[in-house]
Design a protein that fits this description.
mainly alpha; 13 helices; 84% helix; transport; AI-2E-like; membrane
Length: 354
């Protein structure tokens, strides 16, 4: 009978899962506290995991000098703290001033947008009301774009107390990730039945390899892009070069879409100075992207995710709509892991049938 087939069974499970998800969506009084608690825990785990993959090779290098793991982790973390403190002391004021100047500059341009639009369209040819409507529309787009980005960032931190808690939890999470990271695999293998442990070990090692390669590779590429964009902005004499290059560096972690998003603030700043800046910034972005694709990424990123660019774009858009800005950063590695698990599952199923 049809109801005895596996397809029918999977269909029933899918429908039941969707019904449960729908019903849970109606229970705001349950979901909102859970969401806040998850956000409070998730951010330290994600940030700690990010730094874990960055610093793990350094810890291994220190361990090779016959230093115990705990002491190696302590040395590496102290070294990182000294570097960050040095940057804060010697570069903190400059960075803070750059951000303050950029904020003031952006507010000035928003307040002067109506006058600029009048100058572009002319006073006599187009009705004043139409000019006001066009200007208001442009200004509203800019304000919504920046406010949405800010809300997405702030959405990671439910309260001011939550920010403090997360900042305290991040170094603790990082310390224990680095100290006990080698124990994660045996602990996770204990969850699986003994007959599946060999397959599970291969899967977990491959997942770790993919995440490590992608994370460290993307961060290094993003850093190089940020440096190149900063040099380029200085050459074309664009104001707030440091802030704009930092923004480009952060968005470069997002594959494909990051390159486009990273130059948007620079284009907005450039338009307010001279329309020719659009050409300058476009050429600069094109040159940097060519350098990145031809020389930087092939030499730095060793692990290929084997995901089509169009698939990546759709995945990132869906992740942003579901999880906000943080979804853009975790979408691609999460998809790669899910794809890998699906492949292993199909392979194991075929092997068991044979």
């Amino acid at each position: 009978m049809f109801y005895e087939e596996k397809t029918f069974e999977y269909l029933i499970y899918t429908i039941l899962t969707l019904i449960i998800v729908f019903l849970l969506g109606r229970l705001d009084f349950v979901l909102i506290p859970l969401k806040d608690a998850a956000s409070l825990i998730l951010v330290p785990i994600l940030v700690g995991g990010l730094f874990y993959y960055m610093l793990r090779p350094v810890v291994h290098m220190v361990e090779k000098r016959r230093i115990g793991r705990k002491h190696a982790v302590t040395i590496v973390l102290l070294g990182m703290m000294i570097i960050l403190t040095g940057i804060a002391i010697y570069g903190g004021n400059s960075i803070r001033k750059e951000f303050a100047d950029f904020y003031d500059y952006f507010n000035e341009q928003i307040s002067g947008a109506r006058q600029s639009t009048r100058g572009i369209f002319g006073e006599g040819d187009i009705p004043v009301l139409l000019i006001e409507n066009i200007t208001g529309y442009i200004v509203s787009i800019l304000e919504v774009m920046f406010s949405k980005f800010g809300k997405n960032i702030l959405g990671l931190f439910p309260t001011i107390a939550g920010i403090g808690t997360q900042l305290i939890l991040i170094p603790f999470a990082l310390f224990y990730f680095l100290k006990d990271g080698h124990r994660f695999l045996p602990i996770m293998l204990n969850v699986f039945p003994e007959r599946h442990r060999d397959d599970a070990k291969k899967i977990l090692i491959d997942i770790d390899r993919v995440i490590a390669g992608y994370t460290t590779g993307q961060l290094m590429v993003a850093f190089v892009i940020g440096v190149l964009m900063y040099i380029g902005y200085i050459i074309i004499d664009l104001p707030n070069a440091l802030v704009l290059s930092i923004f480009a560096m952060i968005t470069s972690i997002i594959p494909f879409l990051g390159a486009f998003l990273g130059v948007l603030p620079a284009l907005l700043v450039g338009i307010t100075i001279d329309m020719f800046y659009i050409v300058k910034i476009g050429i600069l972005s094109l040159v940097v992207q060519q350098i990145e694709s031809k020389f930087i990424s092939p030499n730095i990123i060793g692990t290929k995710l084997e995901v089509h660019p169009l698939t990546i774009i759709f995945i990132i858009i869906i992740a942003i709509s579901l999880f906000g800005i943080i979804g853009a950063f975790i979408a691609v590695p999460a998809y790669a892991v899910i794809k890998m698990l699906a492949k292993y599952y199909i392979r194991i199923k075929k092997t068991s049938k044979e």
